[in-house]
Design brief:
CATH class of the largest domain in chain B: Mainly Beta
Chains: A mainly alpha (615), B alpha+beta (236), C mainly alpha (201)
Largest sheet of chain B: 5 strands, mixed
Largest sheet of chain A: none
Order of helices and strands of chain B: HHHEEEEEEEEEEH
Number of domains of chain A: 1
Helix content of chain A: 55-70%
Distance between the termini of chain B: 51 Å
Order of helices and strands of chain A: HHHHHHHHHHHHHHHHHHHH
CATH architecture of the largest domain in chain B: Sandwich
Distance between the termini of chain A: 26 Å
Low-confidence stretches of chain B: 230-236
CATH topology of chain A: Cytochrome C Oxidase, Chain A
Number of strands of chain B: 10
Oligomer: heterotrimer
Strand content of chain B: 25-35%
CATH superfamily of the largest domain in chain B: Cupredoxins -  blue copper proteins
Bound molecules: heme-A, dinuclear copper ion, copper (II) ion
Number of strands of chain A: 0
Low-confidence stretches of chain A: 1-12, 602-615
CATH topology of the largest domain in chain B: Immunoglobulin-like
Chain lengths: 615, 236, 201
C-alpha cells in the first residue's frame, strides 16, 4: 500500500535482522511479537498465582524450592516487611529481597498483597489484552479485511515497543524498596494514594506510570485498528461482510480508545496525590475516596468486555469452520456486540454496591447490569444455533471453542448472582467473585486464545501445531481449570473473603480449608499443563508439520493469502463477493465458498467499493 | 457430589431478620441459573453428539431464524428484568436509611482502622463524645431480637464490615458515616471479618459480634455502666 | 506527523475513501482526548457538586482572574478563527496568506499561554497552590492539562509553519495543515467549556 511496502514486496530486497524481527513494521511480525510476549507473561502471571496458591493452602508451611532464608534459619526469626513501618522499609538495604518478602519461606502479608495485585495486573493488561487485541488484532485485521498492512505501520511498531516499556516499568516495581503495588488490581484509594497507609512507596508509583504507558500503547493500537478497518477494507468488503472477529476487534478498539483515557486521568490524579501533595482521594484534604472507584470502574467495566469480545469474535470464526455451517444470526451477533459495548458504559456501579454510594444508584445499576445479560444470551444461543444440524469436527481449536462457550456461560450466570444487589451484599468480595472472574477470563478469554493460537498458527508460522499434544493440553487444562475454579464458588458461598493471605485465621472458614488445598493442587496441574502449550508452540514453530494455504478449508480472506504470508499479504488485492460464512451452500461444488469467489444465486456479484456503506 | 452442586447448602447459618430474604433470592437465582445452565449444556451436548461429523451427511445451510431469536431475546429480557424488579424491595429494606426500622435496641459507632474495629457506645446519655462513651476494641455486643443501628466509618483506608451470618456487608469510608442496621435472631458469637483490602493486616482484621439474650444484655450493660439505671441505656 | 501524511498520500489502493487516513486518525485521537478531559471534568463536578460552598470553605478568599481570563478566551477563539482562515488559504493555494495566518495563529496561542502563565504565578503568590486543598488541586490539574494541550498544539503548529515556509503544501496536498487544524480546533473549543465551568459557575 505505501511505496515502501510495495517496493519491498516487488523486489524482495533483504531486510536486516533488526528491521525484520525487532523494529518490524509488518503487522504480522508485530502480531507475532505480541503473541510471544503475551505467552511469556502468562507464565509470569500464572507463576505468581501458584506462589500465593501455596500460601492459601498451607499458610504455615515454607514454600518448596525457595524455602526459608538463611538468616531465618540461623536466627529463628526475622522482621517481616509487615512488621516495619514504611519509612523504615523505604531505605532498607540490609535485607535481601527474599528476606524482606518471605523470610521464613512463608509469604509476608504485604508481599501476598503485591502478588495478587501483580497477578491480576499482569494477566489483564500484559497477557489477555496483548494476546487478544495485540496479537490477534494485528495479525488478523489487515488479512481478514484484505489489505496490505495497517494504516500506520510506524505507529503500530511504537505500540508494541511502548507496551514493552510499560512492562519493564511494571516488572521493575518488584525490586524497589517498599515492594510492589499492593492495593489490588483495582488500586482502591486511599490505600493506593497515600504511601503511609500501605507502606508501599515507588511500587505503587511505577504501577500507575506503567499503566499510563500501557494506555498510550493501546491508544496507538486502537487509532490504527479503527482507521484501518474503516478505510482500508478490500473492495466489496462491506460492513456486513466483515468477519465477526473483525467486528469484535473494531468494537474493542473503540472501547479501548474511550475507556483508557479515563483511567489514565485517574492514575495521574493518584500520582499527584502521592507525589505532589494534593488530596483528590483523601477525606482530610476535601477529597473523596469513592471518586477513584467511579473513575476506575467506569474504565474497568468496559475493560472486562475488552477482555471477552475478541474471544467471542474468534469463537464465532472457529465455530462455523468446524461446524461447516454459516454462523447463526450474523447480524444479531453484530448488534449484540454493539449492545454489549454500549451497555458496558452504564453498569460500572455494580462493582460498588457495598461501597457506600447512594443506594438509589444501586437500584439503577442492578437493572442495567441485568440487561447486559440479554445480548450475551443472544450470542450464546446463536452459537448453539450454529451447531444445530452441523457437521462437527472435534479439532483442537473446536474443543477450545466449545470450552469457551460453556465456561463463559458458567461465568456469565454467576454474574447474575452479583448483579442482584441484595445477593451481592453477601457474596461481594468473596471467592464467589474470584470464581466469576476466572470463569469469564480464563474459561472465556484464555480458552479462546488457546483455540485461536491453534487455529491461526498455520497461517502465522506456516506450520501446524501438534494435534495430539494439543488435545492432551486441552483436556488437562479443561479438567484442572474446573478443579481450580469451580470449588471457589463453594467457598465463596461459605463466606470466604478474597484477598486474605491466611484463611485459617477465621473460625468460620476452618471447615472449608481442605477445599483450598484441593484448589491449590489443581492449580499446580493447571500450571503444568501450560508447559505443554509452550512446548507445542515453540517446537511447532520450527518443527511442526508444514501447513498448506488453507488447511481448515475456511472462507475468510486470511486463508486465501499464500502461506507463509508474504510482505504485503496478497498478490493482488482480493475482491469480496459475499459474507464470511458460506459453508455447505446447497449445490456448490465444495462445502465452502471463499469470500473471494462469487457464489452466484442470491448474493450480489458486483464488487462494492470499500468504504461505501452498503448493506 | 450433589452437595457440591447445591450452592445454597454451603451458606452459613442465617441469624438476621433480613438474611432470609437474601437467602431466598440466592436460591431463586440458583434455580434460574441452574435451569438456564442445564438447558444450554444439554442442548450443547445433544448437538455435539447428534451433529458430529459423519460420512455422507452434510451440514444444513441455515443463516438464522428471526422468530426464534426474538423469542429467546425477549424471554431472557423478561426473566432478568423481572428478577431485578423482584429484588428491589429487599435491597431497599437493607440499605435505604429512610426505610430502616426505628426504635433501635442499641446504637453503636463502628470505626474501621488499620487493623481493628473500634466500637463506640454512646452510653446512657445517648450522646456521642461524652464522658460515658464506651469504647471497645473488636467487641460488639448487641441484644437479640432487637434492631441495632450502626454508624460506620473509618479512620484511614476503606474497610468493609462483614458479618457472614447476618448476610450483612458494608464498606466503611474515611470521612463519611454510613448507617447500617440489622436485627439478630439468635444469641451467640460471630466473627466480623474485614472484607475490603486495607493493607498488610487485612487478613486477620477480625472483630467479634456477641448477640446476647435479653437478660445477658442487661447484665452486660449494668457491668459497663454500673452507676446509671440500666433502663434507657443506648436509647438515642 | 510525516508518517501520517506519507501513508495516506502514497496509497494507491482505496482511492475513493470518504476521509483520508490521517484525518480519520486525528478524529479518533480526539475521541480519546475528549474522554480524558471527561474524566477530569467529572472529577471537578464531583467536588463542585459535593461541596456546599464553592470555593470550599477553606479557600473562600480565592478569586480567580475572571476578567483577564475572559479576554484570554477571546484571544484563543480568535486563534481558532485565524487557523480556519489559514486552512481556507491553502485550499485556494495562497502560500503567503497561509504562512501569515499560521504565524498569527501561533502568536495568539503563545499569548494565551503567556497570560495563563502570568495569572498562575500571581495565584501562586496569593497562596493558591496545587496542594492547597481540592479546589487548588483540581484547578491546576484541569486548567494545566488544557494548557499542556495548547502547548503541544503550538509545537505542532510550528512544525506545520516550517513546512509552509518550505512550500510543502499546495491546493491538493495539504493534509498536514488540515489535521493540525482539527487538533487546534479541539483545544480552542474545549477552552470555553472549561472557562465557564471553572471560572464562571
Ligand atoms: C471477561 C470478563 C468479564 C465478563 C464478560 C463479565 C461479565 C459479567 N459480569 Fe463480571 N467481573 C469481571 C469480569 C467479567 N465479567 C471481573 C474481572 C470482575 C471482578 C473485578 C474485581 O473486583 O476484581 C467482575 C465482577 C463483577 C461484578 C462485581 C461483583 C462484586 O465485586 O461484588 C458484577 C456484579 O454485578 C459482575 C457482573 C457481571 C455480569 C452480569 C456479566 C454479564 O455480562 C454476563 C452475561 C452472560 C450470561 C448471563 C450467560 C449467557 C446467557 C444465557 C445462557 C442466557 C440465560 C440467562 C439468564 C436467563 C439469566 N461482574
Ligand atoms: C486474565 C486474567 C486471569 C488469569 C488467566 C488468571 C489465572 C489464575 N488465577 Fe487469577 N485473578 C485475576 C485474573 C486472572 N487470573 C484477577 C483480575 C484477580 C483479582 C485480583 C485482585 O483481587 O486484585 C485474580 C485473583 C486470583 C485469586 C484470588 C487472590 C485473592 O483474592 O487473594 C486466585 C486464588 O486462587 C487466583 C488464582 C489463579 C490461578 C490459579 C490461575 C491459573 O489459571 C494460572 C495458570 C497458569 C500458570 C500457572 C502459568 C504456567 C505455569 C507454568 C509454566 C509452571 C511453571 C511456573 C512456576 C511454578 C513459577 N487469581
Ligand atoms: Cu480492614 Cu480489610
Ligand atoms: Cu463489571
Amino acid at each position: 500500500m505505501n511505496e515502501h511496502t510495495q517496493e519491498s514486496h516487488d523486489h524482495h530486497h533483504e531486510e536486516s535482522f533488526v528491521r525484520k524481527y525487532i523494529f518490524s513494521l509488518d503487522h504480522k511480525t508485530i502480531g507475532k511479537q505480541f503473541l510471544i510476549f503475551g505467552l511469556i507473561m502468562f507464565i509470569v502471571g500464572g507463576g505468581l498465582a501458584l506462589l500465593f496458591r501455596w500460601q492459601l493452602a498451607w499458610p504455615d508451611r515454607p514454600l518448596p524450592i525457595i524455602g526459608a532464608s538463611q538468616t531465618y534459619l540461623e536466627e529463628g526469626e526475622v522482621e517481616t516487611a509487615a512488621d516495619r513501618k514504611w519509612e523504615e522499609r523505604y531505605d532498607d538495604d540490609k535485607d535481601s529481597w527474599l528476606e524482606t518478602n518471605m523470610p521464613s519461606g512463608i509469604i509476608d502479608p504485604n508481599f501476598y498483597n503485591s502478588l495478587f495485585t501483580m497477578h491480576a495486573t499482569i494477566m489483564v493488561f500484559f497477557v489477555v489484552v496483548p494476546l487478544l487485541v495485540g496479537a490477534f488484532g494485528n495479525f488478523l485485521i489487515p488479512l481478514m479485511i484484505g489489505t496490505r498492512d495497517m494504516a500506520f505501520p510506524v505507529l503500530n511498531m511504537l505500540s508494541f515497543w511502548s507496551n514493552m516499556l510499560g512492562t519493564i516499568i511494571m516488572i521493575a516495581g518488584f525490586f524497589v524498596p517498599g515492594g510492589h503495588a499492593a492495593a489490588g488490581w483495582t488500586g482502591y484509594a486511599p490505600l493506593s494514594s497515600v504511601p503511609e497507609l500501605s507502606g508501599v512507596d515507588w511500587g505503587q508509583n511505577l504501577w500507575c506510570i506503567s499503566l499510563i504507558v500501557m494506555g498510550i500503547s493501546s491508544l496507538m493500537g486502537s487509532i490504527n485498528y479503527i482507521t484501518t478497518i474503516i478505510n482500508m477494507r478490500a473492495p466489496g468488503m462491506t460492513w456486513f461482510r466483515l468477519p465477526l472477529a473483525i467486528w469484535a476487534l473494531f468494537i474493542v478498539a473503540i472501547l479501548l480508545l474511550l475507556a483508557f483515557p479515563v483511567v489514565a486521568s485517574a492514575l495521574g490524579l493518584i500520582l499527584f496525590d502521592r507525589l505532589a501533595g494534593t488530596s483528590f482521594f483523601s477525606a482530610e484534604g476535601g477529597g473523596d475516596a469513592l471518586l477513584w472507584q467511579h473513575l476506575f470502574w467506569f474504565f474497568a467495566h468496559p475493560e472486562v468486555y475488552i477482555l471477552i469480545l475478541p474471544g467471542m469474535g474468534m469463537a464465532s470464526e472457529m465455530l462455523p469452520v468446524f461446524s461447516r455451517k454459516p454462523i447463526f444470526g450474523y447480524k444479531s451477533m453484530v448488534y449484540a456486540m454493539i449492545a454489549i459495548a454500549f451497555l458496558s458504559w452504564i453498569v460500572w456501579g455494580h462493582h460498588m454496591f457495598q461501597s457506600g454510594m447512594n443506594p438509589a444508584l444501586g437500584m439503577a445499576f442492578m437493572t442495567t447490569t441485568m440487561l447486559i445479560a440479554v445480548p450475551s444470551a443472544i450470542k450464546t444461543f446463536n452459537w448453539l444455533g450454529t451447531l444445530y444440524r452441523a457437521s462437527i469436527r472435534f479439532t483442537v481449536p473446536m474443543l477450545n471453542t466449545l470450552a469457551f462457550v460453556s465456561m463463559f456461560v458458567i461465568g456469565g450466570l454467576s454474574g447474575i448472582y452479583m448483579a442482584n444487589s441484595p445477593v451481592d451484599i453477601y457474596i461481594h468480595d468473596t471467592y464467589y467473585i474470584v470464581a466469576h472472574i476466572h470463569y469469564v477470563v480464563f474459561g472465556g478469554s484464555v480458552f479462546a486464545i488457546f483455540g485461536g493460537v491453534f487455529y491461526w498458527f498455520p497461517k502465522m508460522f506456516g506450520r501446524h501445531m501438534n494435534e495430539i499434544l494439543g488435545k492432551i493440553h486441552f483436556w488437562i487444562s479443561f479438567i484442572a481449570f474446573n478443579g481450580v475454579f469451580f470449588p471457589m464458588h463453594i467457598i465463596g458461598v461459605g463466606g470466604h473473603m478474597r484477598r486474605i493471605s491466611n484463611p485459617t485465621q477465621y473460625e468460620f472458614l476452618q471447615h472449608m480449608q481442605w477445599i483450598n488445598v484441593l484448589i491449590t493442587m489443581f492449580a499446580f496441574v493447571l500450571g503444568a499443563a501450560q508447559i505443554l502449550l509452550l512446548i507445542n508452540v515453540f517446537w511447532s514453530m520450527f518443527r511442526g508439520k508444514v501447513a498448506e494455504q488453507n488447511p481448515w478449508q475456511a472462507t475468510t480472506l486470511e486463508w486465501q493469502a499464500p502461506t507463509p504470508v508474504p510482505h504485503g499479504n496478497f498478490g493482488a488485492i482480493p475482491h469480496v463477493y459475499h459474507g464470511p460464512y458460506e459453508y455447505s451452500v446447497p449445490g456448490a461444488e465444495s462445502d465452502w465458498i471463499p469470500q473471494t469467489q462469487p457464489n452466484g444465486e442470491s448474493l450480489p456479484d458486483e464488487p462494492v467499493p470499500a468504504g461505501a456503506a452498503a448493506d | 457430589m450433589l452437595k457440591w452442586l447445591n450452592f445454597p447448602e454451603w451458606l452459613p447459618e442465617n441469624v438476621s431478620t433480613f438474611g432470609k430474604g437474601v437467602d431466598n433470592l440466592f436460591v431463586a437465582i440458583y434455580w434460574i441459573t441452574s435451569i438456564a445452565f442445564l438447558g444450554v449444556m444439554i442442548t450443547l451436548i445433544v448437538f455435539l453428539i447428534k451433529y458430529r461429523y459423519q460420512e455422507g451427511r452434510s451440514a444444513g445451510y441455515i443463516h438464522g431464524n428471526t422468530t426464534l431469536e426474538y423469542v429467546w431475546t425477549i424471554a431472557t429480557a423478561v426473566i432478568v428484568f423481572g428478577l431485578a424488579m423482584f429484588s428491589l424491595p429487599q435491597w431497599n429494606k437493607i440499605k435505604f436509611p429512610s426505610q430502616f426500622p426505628g426504635d433501635p435496641g442499641a446504637v453503636v459507632q463502628v470505626n474501621g482502622k488499620q487493623f481493628n474495629w473500634d466500637m463506640t457506645y454512646p452510653g446512657p446519655d445517648g450522646e456521642w463524645e461524652t464522658d460515658d462513651d464506651l469504647q471497645l476494641e473488636n467487641q460488639l455486643h448487641v441484644p437479640v431480637n432487637e434492631v441495632v443501628h450502626i454508624r460506620l466509618t473509618s479512620d484511614d483506608v476503606i474497610h468493609s464490615f462483614f458479618v457472614p451470618q447476618l448476610r450483612l456487608k458494608q464498606d466503611a469510608l474515611p470521612g463519611r458515616f454510613i448507617n447500617v442496621w440489622f436485627e439478630a435472631t439468635k444469641p451467640g458469637t460471630y466473627e466480623i471479618p474485614c472484607a475490603e483490602l486495607c493493607g498488610f493486616g487485612h487478613s486477620g482484621m477480625l472483630g467479634y459480634l456477641t448477640v446476647h439474650t435479653e437478660e445477658d444484655y442487661e447484665a452486660w450493660k449494668s457491668e459497663r455502666w454500673p452507676d446509671t439505671e440500666t433502663k434507657g441505656v443506648n436509647v438515642e | 506527523m510525516n508518517e501520517l501524511e506519507h501513508t495516506s498520500y502514497t496509497s494507491t489502493e482505496g482511492e475513493n475513501r470518504p476521509i483520508s487516513n490521517a484525518r480519520l486518525a486525528v478524529l479518533v485521537l480526539l475521541g480519546a482526548e475528549i474522554m480524558f478531559f471527561a474524566g477530569l471534568i467529572g472529577t471537578f463536578l464531583v467536588f463542585r457538586l459535593g461541596s456546599t460552598t464553592w470555593p470550599p470553605a477553606s479557600q473562600v478568599d480565592v478569586r480567580l482572574p475572571v476578567g483577564v481570563t475572559g479576554l484570554n478566551t477571546i484571544v484563543l477563539l480568535l486563534s481558532g478563527f485565524t487557523m480556519f482562515k489559514a486552512q481556507q488559504a491553502i485550499r485556494q493555494g495562497l502560500q503567503n496568506a497561509l504562512r501569515n495566518r499560521l504565524f498569527l495563529t501561533g502568536l495568539l496561542g503563545v499569548i494565551f499561554l503567556a497570560v495563563q502563565g502570568y495569572e498562575w504565578v500571581r495565584l501562586v503568590h496569593h497562596g493558591f497552590t496545587l496542594s492547597s486543598g481540592v479546589y487548588g488541586s483540581i484547578f491546576y490539574v484541569l486548567i494545566g492539562c488544557h494548557a499542556l494541550h495548547v502547548l503541544v498544539a503550538v509545537f505542532w503548529l510550528l512544525a506545520v509553519f516550517i513546512g509552509a515556509t518550505a512550500g510543502r503544501f499546495s491546493v491538493d496536498r495539504h493534509v498536514g495543515v488540515e489535521v493540525c487544524a482539527i487538533y487546534w480546533a479541539f483545544v480552542v473549543l474545549l477552552w470555553p467549556i472549561l472557562y465557564v465551568l471553572v471560572y464562571l459557575i
